[in-house]
Amino acid sequence: MSIDAAGLFVPLELRGVTTRNRVAISPMQQFEAAQDAMPATWHQVHLGQFALGGAGIVFTEAMAVSARGRISYGDMGLWREEQADALRPIAAFIRSTGALSGAQISHAGRRGATTAPWDGKRPLVADDAARGMAPWELWAPSALPSRKEAQTPLAMDAAMIEQVQAEYVRAAALAERAGFDVLELHGGHGYMLHAFLSPLSNQRTDAYGGNREKRMRFALEVVERVRSVWPANKPLFFRVSSFDGVSGGWEMEDTLALVPALMARGVDVIDVSSGGVGGLSSNAAEHTRMPGYHVPMSARIREATRARTQVVGLVTDARQADEIVRSGGADLVAIGREALRNPYWAAHAREALGDADYKSWPEQYAWWLRARRDHLAR
């Protein structure tokens, strides 16, 4: 079967933009932001290499909607015009290669104020102030720490809820100012939106807690307000933790109820992940991690709700990714750690699937590679 028929390298139309293929680069925190949460040269090179490597969409790491919403001092942010202006050349370069530029925005909530992973990803404490890393006050749906040793957050009152929702709206408007083609709201991994959804982290008794519909209210209001400022011709993605993987938590049936409500408010693609509510990892510790382990959840969401989905999680092989799309497992396949190992994964995938003419490579590279191929053939 042709690689240009029904599989990984078929373009996908999303509102007013079209992906050149079904490969997305998943958001991956780098913890390398410059002062004031500004993008650094690191981010220009890091994201640019994936665009040169042939991906259809290149997402930034999760960018905090406020200083309080950061995971760490190394996070990029999107709450000031200066940050958006610094991101503009990154988005423009990605687009110049033929890829779509994607911005993911997030509020860490009770999972904020930590060190980088190579420094233990531990909660910041008062002693860290001596090295310019004082902890900040965390906000969350309920006054429940993400893990035993973490800071106990403040339970958000009505004014705090309004402030955080307004921060998401501001970040969305700034993503448009920066020129991004796609916007994703991070609604998983135990961060703010997920924390409102999960009964493990939301024990409120007001209009934002209790039954599932009330726990969904905060996230749905954020989506509605963001969609009102994000251009109608640009797609909106929403990352879900499809289940918590912890007894008594958010389950797949809850996700199947949430997705139609997201779609009704203007979400175009559901980005399928899992876990994180316990603050220990971005995926459910109890779930067996095997290649493509979120594909069954993604396929179920597609079948039950008719939503378009993007799936992430141990997808490493070109034929594996191609089969996911062909079989209806997902509309887009997000590559994460494998892209760190091989930034040109998408271009190599097209070769592995039968294209010997280097069509996914930048022409500045492709002509060299074709010349070598022809020389070796002679």
Describe it:
By secondary structure, the chain is α/β, with parallel strands linked by helices. The protein has a single domain (12-377), classed as Aldolase class I (TIM Barrel), CATH 3.20.20.70. Helix content is 35%, strand content 14%. It contains eleven helices and twelve strands. It has helices at residues 41-52, 81-96, 158-178, 192-197, 212-229, 252-264, 295-305, 318-326, 337-341, 345-352, 363-377; strands at residues 12-14, 17-19, 23-25, 57-64, 100-106, 139-140, 154-155, 182-187, 236-241, 269-273, 308-312, 332-335. The strands form three sheets. It has an eight-stranded parallel β-barrel with strand order 3-4-5-8-9-10-11-12, surrounded by seven helices. The protein has a two-stranded antiparallel ribbon with strand order 1-2. The chain has a two-stranded parallel sheet with strand order 6-7. Helix 1 runs parallel beside helix 2 (81-96), helix 2 (81-96) packs across helix 3 and helix 3 (158-178) packs parallel to helix 5 (212-229). The longest helix is centred in the middle third of the chain and has 21 residues, at 158-178. The model is unreliable at 280-286 (pLDDT under 50).
